[in-house]
Amino acid sequence: MKNQAIFFLICLLAGSLITSCRKDNNQGSTDKPNISNDVLAQIKAKGFSTSNVHAVKDGYLVEGDIFLSSKDLSRKAQNTKVRVAKTEQYSTNNLVVALPRVITVKVVSLGSAFVQGTDLAIQRYNALGLRIRFQRITSGNADITIQGFYEGPSGGYITLGSSGFPTDAGDPFNLIEMNTHPYAYGSNPNVQYVGSVIQHEIGHCIGMRHTDYMDRSYSCGGDPVDEGDGGVGAVYLPGTPSDPDPNSWMLACSNGGNRTFNSNDIIALNYLYR
């Protein structure tokens, strides 16, 4: 999946894992400050690659697109991954509980493409018949708020959006941020493109990690990155194929176009939430 690669990030920030998605942009700094061996050991213990680690504000960027906060690096890794074939579906240890439940979503101060993209993502999830359903609301407090931020290219990439993983109490992560900078989605954002990014970020909010976490080169190109189990374990889902899975909605990189669930994605979501 080359052709304007989109990087969906896993970020660990303020006590929770935060994800964001980026696309290539040939602007920004490429400085690579030295990282201590202690920090590298903590990163490896979390199950992430220790190649090309970059120090950034309040933490570190790993695997080219994953932010880990300094505060939470020292916390013991407790993630569980759900494996589907050679490219793998992962969930965090924290999942949404108290099922069945309706998760409300509110879009705040964003344009019509983001509202329509949210409706598209919600429609796709609800069509699966899971024990979690999504409903967009326009007033009151929502379980997930989608709001904008404005940030230009940095370090050769531009952030498209960010989200996080469920809380220890079993609630979905409560915030998705979408970049309103023109370099992110252009002056006339494509609804299916925006909706696919929101769909991916919602996936993180309910506990999904990247499909090709164990080898990001599968969707991103470049050198293979394989950290083994990374100390987080693996659970294989019976009945899934053993061949590579090129179209998952949770791949680390895509071509920036329309992407929804494939059959293996549905198996993984059904395993967790049906």
From TrEMBL:
InterPro entries linked: MetalloPept_cat_dom_sf, Peptidase_M10/M27/M57
Put simply, this protein is called Protease
Which keywords fit this entry according to its UniProt record? Answer: Hydrolase, Protease
Specify the domain of life of the species encoding this protein: Bacteria
Protease as a keyword of this entry, yes or no, is yes
Q: Cross-referenced Pfam families, in alphabetical order? A: Peptidase_M57
Which molecular-function annotation in GO is an example for this chain? metallopeptidase activity
Q: Which GO terms describe its biological process?
A: proteolysis
